[in-house]
Every structure is written in C-alpha cells, then in structure tokens.
Amino acid sequence: MNPRCRLISALFLIATVVPLRAADRNWAAYLGDAGATQYSTLNQINLANVARLERVWSFHTGEAAENNRSQIQCNPLVVDGVLYGSSPQVKLYALDAATGRERWRFDPFLAGDETAARGVNRGLTWWQEGSERRILFSAGHYLYAIDPATGQLVESFGQGGRVDLLLDLDRDTTGLALVATTPGVIYRDLIIVPVRVGEGPAPAAPGHIRAYDVRTGKRRWIFHTIPQPGEIGHDTWPADAWQRTGGANNWAGLVIDQERGLAFIPTGSASFDFWGGDRVGANLFANCLIALDAATGERKWHFQFVHHDIWDRDPPSAPVLCDVMRDGRKIAAVAQTLKSGHVWVFDRVTGESLFPWREEPVPPSQLRGEVAWPTQPMPSKPAPFARQLFTEDEVTNRTPAAREAVLRRLREANPHRPWDPPSERGTIVLPGFDGGAEWGGPAVDPRGILYVNSNEMAWLQHMVPTALFAGGIRPLYAQLCVSCHGPKGEGNAAQNIPSLANLGSRLKLDEIVALLRTGRGVMPSFNFVPEASKQALARLVLNPDAEAPADSREAATSSASSATGSPYVTTGYNRFLDPEGYPAIKPPWGTLNAIDLNTGEYLWRRPLGELPELTAAGLPPTGTENYGGPIVTAGGVLFIAATKDEKFRAFSSVTGELLWETSLPAAGYATPSTYEVGGRQFVVIACGGGKIGTKSGDAYVAFALP
Ligand code: HEC
Fold first, then answer.
1. Residue ranges of the chain with pLDDT lower than 50?
2. For residue 498, how far is its CA from the centre of ligand 1 (angstroms)?
3. Can you tell me the distance from the alpha carbon of 239 to that of 163, in angstroms, rounded to the nearest whole number?
4. N or C: which end of the chain has fewer CB within 10 A?
5. Rounded distance from Cα 521 to ligand 1 centre (Å)
6. What's the pLDDT score for residue 558?
7. Of 548, 474, 535, 483, whose CA–CA distance to 509 is shortest?
8. How far, in whole angstroms, is CA 395 from its chain's centroid?
C-alpha cells in the first residue's frame, strides 16, 4: 500500500470504529439484506490486513458439467454458522460455514420432475419467526419450503412442500416456460417472488408479480404488470394484449423497505424482446421500477426506464436502498443501475428522481409493423459508467488487421446512435445486451457510495424476416431455436451454445426429443410444443439439408409468419468481436466504478480483470467481461470475483486500489458473501465458471485471516 493510501485507510478505520449499525455476523438475505445493499458491518478483515487473506476451505459438489456449460450464480446465505448455497445442478446444500463440511443436501428434482428445466439459481430466502425457520428455495418453476435444520420439505407448504409458480397467473399458462432463478424477498409472513418467462416470439407467460404466504404457500396478492381492462396502464397496450402478451416480469429480484412497507420491483421487457409490432404503445408496467405496498400489492408509484422496449434493455438487478444527503436533508432513496450504464436515484416515498432528467427524441424503426416510441428518458447525472457510442475512434487498435476487419463490419451495419432500433442491416448495441450493469447488482455503503462493475462490450444484432424460414417445421425452428443456435445451427461459442452440426454422431432422435421436453442448463424446456412438432424439430436438426419435415400444428402451415406472429426473428445475441475473438471496441472491456450518490460524481473508476496474454504482450490491463457483483464492508474493503481471468480480488473502497488477489478453481460469476463464525470473519464465493468460454466449476471457496 502506498503512503497516501495508508493514511486514507487509517482515517477510514478511525471513522468506522464507531459502527454505523450493530455488526451483523450473518448474511441472512440474498445480497446481504432486504435492501440488497451488498454491504456488511464486519470489519475484522480491513484495509490494513486484507493482503494477508488465506483460503481456509473449499467445498466441491462434484457436479460441474464436463462440457463446461454448468454455472453457479448463487450468493449463499449464512445464518448462525451454517452456509446454504446451491450447486450447478440446482441442488441445495447446507455446509458448516467455518469448515466447509457438508451437513445435508436437498435435490428438488428427485420426485418425478424429469420435465423441469433446472435453469440456474441465484440464491435463497431465509424466513424466521420465533422458533419457526424456513428456507424458501426456487428450482425450475417451483418454490420449495425447506426446514434449515434437516433439509427436509415442510409438507404443509403448498402441495407437499412446494408451490407451482406456473399456476395462479390469472391466465391459462399451460405448457409455457417459467423458471424462478432469483430468490424472493420476505415482508412479514409474505414472500414476493421473482420469475423468468419467455422473451422470444413464441407465446410467453405474463410476468405478474405475486406474494405468497410463507406458511401455507397460498397466493395472497397479485399485481398485473400487463394491466387488465379497467386497471391503470391498460391503455398503453393494444386492448387485447393482457390476454396474449407475455413478459413484463420481475426476473432481476426486488428490495423491500421493511419500515415503510414498500416493495421496489424492477420489471423486464415485454415479449417479444426485439419486435413489438403486436404490442404498440408504451407498454406499462414493462421496464419499470414499481413501488408497491408490500402488504397488499397496491401500486404507489412507478418509473418507466424504457418505453416500448425493443432492445431487451430491462433493469438487470434488484435496486439498492440507501440514504443520500440533499440540501442538508437525509433522503431515503432507491437506486437502480441499468444495462445502459445509467444509474437512477429516486426518493423512495415520492418516486421523484433526485437528479434532473428529460425525455430525449430517439430514432424511428424501419421494421415492418414496428412503432418505436419517439422519446426515451435520460438522467443528467451521474454520468454513465460505460461508453455510449461506438464510433470509428473507438474501434480496437490491438493490431492493424483486427482494426481493419472491425472497421469493415462496422461500416456494413447502421452507424451507431444511442437507442438505434433493431434492423435487418445490423444494429450496434453498446452498452451490450449484458450491460453496462448486469444481474450481480451494485453494492452501496452507508455513506451513499455506490459500487458497480460494468461490461463495456459492443454487440451486433440482426433481424431476419421470418419468411426466410419457410418450409415445414422451419418457421418453428426460427421461432424457438434461432436466437441461440443460429440460422444454420452454427451455435455461438462466446455464449457457450453448441453447434448442431453432425448431431447424428452424438444424439439419437429420441434423445433430442427428450432434451426438448426437459431443457438442460441454459436451454429452456420446449414441452409446450406438441409431441409431433418436437419430433419434426428433432428430425430437422439431425438432417438440416433434407426437405424440412412437416409441422403438424395447423397455425404454422399457412404462412411462415403465422408461426411466430412476428414477421422477424433475431439471429441471436452476438458479441461484436475481432477475428481473434477479442472485443471489437478498444479497452477497457470491464470496469469497477465508485459513484457518490449524494453528488452524482465519481470517486474512482478502474479496469476490472485482465487477459494474461495481452498483459504479457505489453498492453495495460484491459478489464474483462464480468458477471456477478461486488460486496463492500465496514472494513473499507470491496470484494469481487466476476472476471474471466478466474480471480478473486479485494480493493480499497476508498481509493479503488487493488489490495489482494488470488486465483479461483473456476471463475466466480456470482456475488460473494461475508460472515463471522466463532469470532472469525470469512468471505466466500461460488466458483461455477461456465460462461464466456471459461471452464465450469463446482466449488464454494472461503477465505479468512490466518
Ligand atoms: C436459450 C438458448 C437456447 C435455445 C432457445 C435453444 N437451445 Fe438448444 N441448447 C442450448 C444450450 C446452452 C445447449 C447445451 C445444453 C447443455 O448441455 O448444458 C443446447 C443443446 C442443444 C442440443 C444438444 C446439442 C449437443 O451437441 O448435445 C440440441 C439438439 C438442441 N439444443 C436443440 C435445440 C432446438 C431444436 C431448439 C429449439 C426448439 C433449441 N435447442 C433452443 C441453448 C438453447
């Protein structure tokens, strides 16, 4: 540590000797607390000693996928010396938090759930009243209640211990896709539950927000995010949208101001993500931050970040609750970071933005049937934490050949403008589909400083007329499979999506049909597709050049577009890379930022992560793409993994200086937790890898001072 930093650190420690809150030894809520602050009052590990941190235990579940596609995105809970976390196969584990020794495990997929897509799990919910204790754990489309002492189901909850979240949506959702990846949040004896639904051109479930009774599993209230006739916002959609449109779901998680009884809930975009010609209008309450009365579900206020979203630019994480000073007055605030690189700060009670903002005109769409909204809201402050424009000046200069190749492709696409709508010619998406900010969420400390890690990658998106996929089952392939596997089944290596070439050498027809029924890892279940169509899809991918097998579904036989309802499909989520696979934009490709929410000014900002081969070649650290968030502590330390280089790092939250780093058994694409057992502070991170071309892992690794 340099002398200046040492002085600052000493002052910081003195300032925090008087704890701002009673020290909490537990990490009893997803992301730390009901306000998702990702902050801990523990300070045994601090600026002066963090460099001495050592690995004290690792626990391996033995479940990493050999094809490197499994992940662990879980931010584990720690309560009274026991750690609860989920595994790559979405099993729930209880470990001794001081030693990593297994106490019990629970496999939600044992009892006849072959058809449930496992998806991923980002965390758990703890509930306690008197001597009653429960873990609420979601896997596939079920919410389970588990006894934390034994790992057994609480049979009195829902149907034999679980609730089917696909039911009780006030609409027929039979066979539609729905998984619950992000844990719910408790308000008294209620749990408000996030869910993920379809975002493609296929029929999708509506994302209405629901609260369930923690004891019985009964639905206690529902808020219609796609409003029904007579409800506010109904007129921002076509009149019948509430019966057929999907999405507008809270997939990112939520926070609750327990004192005021207010839930702050961000919502996703409406389906289909990239063409909204069948949902013309502003589309309330998609892409909003909604403040609801946590007890009743009654709306208090809302703010829409994107009107009529056609970019998949939905808020990617829960917001954070914090206090900020304004004109000498303390204001209870809620702050939301976005994929676009912006952070919005609102008064929790009034819903007013604490920084000026305005509606800015944005370009119209050239796609058939699309009516882009003419303006979008932009905050004046804080400045965005990721670049907003991909001009020729920003093109990589890693090598002259890389620069030439990128310039060529850049000139073929539409010149980049912010809010450029999807197009057939090609649209630059910057910040990319994965932000800016992502699902790891930001941390905030009691001083009102927000810490957010950010991606800084351009992506390149193309829309293709659905009519190009004419013939038999092909329109259904376009509707359901193209966005991941590509128009010709070529896959997408950067997204870990396999090519379907020479499928016959690996899989038999029946095995493909079974896979479509269940889904696997990131691939969703397509069980809602009639059996004969599943067979036809399997035959098509086995034999793509033969005449496409017929589609048995009546709707699909008349014309290509009737299968999707959308005249366009997207060719997928494609990063804009140079010919060697490095980002097409100049570094930094990942950053860590500290923003003072009191003033809207940056305290510091630095690249996050490095690619060893580029550093060896003489480049300054470039930062890497990163997934999973930071935590910050009263010891003045910020911990974050998240990077592609499979490292775990500690920074000074005061100066941004790197204080410690270590290599993990696999990348930690998750948010760490910190806790105390027996007078010793630990920091733990899930190492699941399995994204952006890095290997999968199956470990939780804990660190402490020697
Ligand atoms: C959200 C992205 C996504 C969509 C949509 C999707 N897949 Fe997949 N698919 C994947 C991923 C990821 C895997 C690898 C799964 C694993 O092994 O973890 C996969 C695996 C497969 C495999 C096995 C490949 C192999 O080599 O083992 C087949 C076959 C397949 N998908 C067919 C389809 C078909 C047909 C559709 C459309 C009905 C479809 N997929 C839609 C992501 C997707």
1. 17-20, 554-563
2. 7
3. 31
4. C
5. 9
6. 34
7. 535
8. 28
Q: Which of 649, 644, 647 lies closest to 694 in space, CA to CA?
A: 644
- Our measurement of the distance from residue 588's CA atom to the centroid of its chain's CA atoms, rounded to an integer in Å, reads 21
Q: How far apart are CA 258 and CA 545, in angstroms?
A: 59
Q: Is the CB of 464 under 6 A from ligand 1?
A: no
Q: How far is ligand 1, taken at its centre, from the CA of residue 21, in Å?
A: 48
What is the rounded distance in angstroms from the CA atom of residue 173 to the CA atom of residue 601?
46
* Per-residue model confidence (pLDDT) at position 492: 83
Which tokens hold the place of 563? 């299968």
Token digits of residue 245: 């449109």
pLDDT of residue 562: 38
520 Cβ inside 6 Å of ligand 1: yes
Q: Which residues of 162-192 are buried (b: 16+ CB within 10 A; e: fewer)?
A: bbebbeebebebeebbbbbbbbbbbbeebbb
- Which residues, 6+ apart, have CB-to-CB distance to 3 below 8 Å? none
Which residue has a Cα nearest atom 1 of ligand 1? 523
Residue 489 amino acid letter: G
Q: Which of 535, 627, 564, 567 is nearest to 198 (CA)?
A: 564
Token pair, residue 379, equals: 């905050």
Tell me how far apart the alpha carbons of residues 39 and 42 are, in angstroms, rounded to a whole number.
Answer: 9
Of all protein residues, whose CA lies closest to atom 36 belonging to ligand 1? 481
Measured at the CA of 402, the angle between CA 399 and CA 403, to 5 degrees, comes to 85
* Phi-psi map region of 584: left, alpha, beta (phi>0 left; psi -120 to 50 alpha): alpha
Q: What is the dihedral of CA 231, 233, 238, 244, to 10 degrees?
A: -60
Please give the structure tokens belonging to residue 66: 């050999």
Distance of alpha carbon 660 from alpha carbon 190, whole angstroms = 41
Instruction: Let me know: does 210 contact 219? Beta carbons within 8 Å.
Output: yes
Question: According to the model, what pLDDT value does residue 343 have?
Answer: 98
Cβ of 240: how many Cβ atoms within 10 Å?
Answer: 10
* Side chain identity at residue 279, one-letter code: R
Q: For CA atoms 606, 610, 615, 619, give the dihedral sign.
A: negative
Burial degree of 594 (CB within 10 A; 0-12, 13-18, 19+)? buried
